[in-house]
Amino acid sequence: MAFNLEETVKQLTDFLKTEAKIETVVGQSFQLGEFTCMPVIKFGMGLGYGGGEGKGVQPGKANGEGTGGGAGGGLGVEPIGFLATRGDQISFIPTRNSRGLSAAFEKLPDFMEKMMDKKRDQKAEPVA
Description:
Layout: H1 5-19, H2 22-25, E1 30-32, E2 35-54, E3 66-86, E4 89-94, H3 101-124
Antiparallel strand pairs: 1-2, 2-3, 3-4
């Protein structure tokens, strides 16, 4: 049994190019009022490979030769926050601590109120 490490690494790299993207795991950037939000991810990978051979005769046991091999890997992708931009301002909103995502949701009502006030003001302005 032959194991081609170069081919396996190439296939794994091709897989990562197509599958391990922010869009695949979290989603694409989106607009929220005046803000553009971009998901931020943490990416980790581990690979392992091992093989062995055996030859010879052991009294009372089978005669012959043997080979063996194996490979394994793991991939982890986790959303860690969002970059929020408005004009030339950039903010990072983390999702991992209690102040992260929950803080963003806590700010959402104030943000929505400001957006509604702005729309109300625009409607109230007379058209010249």
